[in-house]
Amino acid sequence: MEHKSVLLKESIEMLQIKDDGIYVDCTLGRGGHSSEILKRCTKGHLYALDCDQSAIDESTKRLSGIGSNFTCIHTPFERLSQVLDEQGVSEVDGIIMDLGVSSPQFDDGSRGFSYRYDARLDMRMDQSQELDAWTVVNTYSQEELTGLLKSFGQEPFAHKIAQQIVQTRRKHPIDTTFQLVDVIKESLPQKVLNKKGHPAKRTFQAIRMEVNGELPQLESALHQGLHRLAVGGRLCVITFHSLEDRMVKQTFKQVATPPKVNRRLPVIGEERLEYRLINRKPILASEAELAENNRAHSAKLRGIERLRNFENEAK
């Protein structure tokens, strides 16, 4: 299945790309956002990051057909600041983060991301790392499994699923996605199994997020991105579930809200803020996009702009 970048038009418009700007695509994937940035940034430079080497290989070919002013780097985006330092870049005009798993990763059954294909439990975005889904499922304690299913999957039956996983692996390892699906189904009451939607969705999401360290990586990258924005620069983030969106919303709000002050003192207004929210409510996919791309249903776009750099002003 061809990968369609979600909220592509809206996110590119939000970035307000300058033809001589410096931009970072933190999640290159199959190059949907990077391609549109490169078309508009003819005199500047694009740095595109991805921890999946296959994404780097595929997208390098695609971007080469548009221009040569780009650099693709195989790395997790939590290394954003280190990458920019290595490239000799102090600040950038825009950053895009399109979170989650891409369609090619889900649709490649051998990667073990999907409960629709039978494959070895893997779920690594970066296939050079050691921790994979098999290790999580077969070595984490029942308490650890329960905790991550609750935290990352928001799974109401976390305890029962974790308990069943531990009981099953005492007899034999849980090696494949379908074996894990069977364990999950054994853990759930019939009324839940009869509901719409796949019963393994929350568990697979939780394990994937654990394997790839998705929330800690996002938290780190958000703060790095905010710090690296030039004045007038914008950071745009597309999320696909509530945990990601909450983190983005809270991080943006924290830096774009005036501090509380004594009511008897003059109010600190917009002129003393370093950042401003581009949109207070998330931008959602249009009806037309939803009809074309089912993945867009849970997508939310938020953006923030840097108004001034207090560090530079203090120098």
From TrEMBL:
<feature type="binding site">
    <location>
        <position position="77"/>
    </location>
    <ligand>
        <name>S-adenosyl-L-methionine</name>
    </ligand>
</feature>
<feature type="binding site">
    <location>
        <position position="98"/>
    </location>
    <ligand>
        <name>S-adenosyl-L-methionine</name>
    </ligand>
</feature>
<dbReference type="Pfam" id="PF01795">
    <property type="entry name" value="Methyltransf_5"/>
</dbReference>
<feature type="binding site">
    <location>
        <position position="50"/>
    </location>
    <ligand>
        <name>S-adenosyl-L-methionine</name>
    </ligand>
</feature>
<comment type="similarity">
    <text>Belongs to the methyltransferase superfamily. RsmH family.</text>
</comment>
<dbReference type="InterPro" id="IPR029063">
    <property type="entry name" value="SAM-dependent_MTases_sf"/>
</dbReference>
<keyword id="KW-0949">S-adenosyl-L-methionine</keyword>
<feature type="binding site">
    <location>
        <begin position="31"/>
        <end position="33"/>
    </location>
    <ligand>
        <name>S-adenosyl-L-methionine</name>
    </ligand>
</feature>
<keyword id="KW-0698">rRNA processing</keyword>
<dbReference type="GO" id="GO:0005737">
    <property type="term" value="C:cytoplasm"/>
</dbReference>
<dbReference type="GO" id="GO:0070475">
    <property type="term" value="P:rRNA base methylation"/>
</dbReference>
<dbReference type="GO" id="GO:0071424">
    <property type="term" value="F:rRNA (cytosine-N4-)-methyltransferase activity"/>
</dbReference>
<dbReference type="InterPro" id="IPR023397">
    <property type="entry name" value="SAM-dep_MeTrfase_MraW_recog"/>
</dbReference>
<keyword id="KW-0489">Methyltransferase</keyword>
<dbReference type="InterPro" id="IPR002903">
    <property type="entry name" value="RsmH"/>
</dbReference>
<keyword id="KW-0808">Transferase</keyword>
<comment type="function">
    <text>Specifically methylates the N4 position of cytidine in position 1402 (C1402) of 16S rRNA.</text>
</comment>
<protein>
    <recommendedName>
        <fullName>Ribosomal RNA small subunit methyltransferase H</fullName>
        <ecNumber>2.1.1.199</ecNumber>
    </recommendedName>
</protein>
<feature type="binding site">
    <location>
        <position position="105"/>
    </location>
    <ligand>
        <name>S-adenosyl-L-methionine</name>
    </ligand>
</feature>
<keyword id="KW-0963">Cytoplasm</keyword>
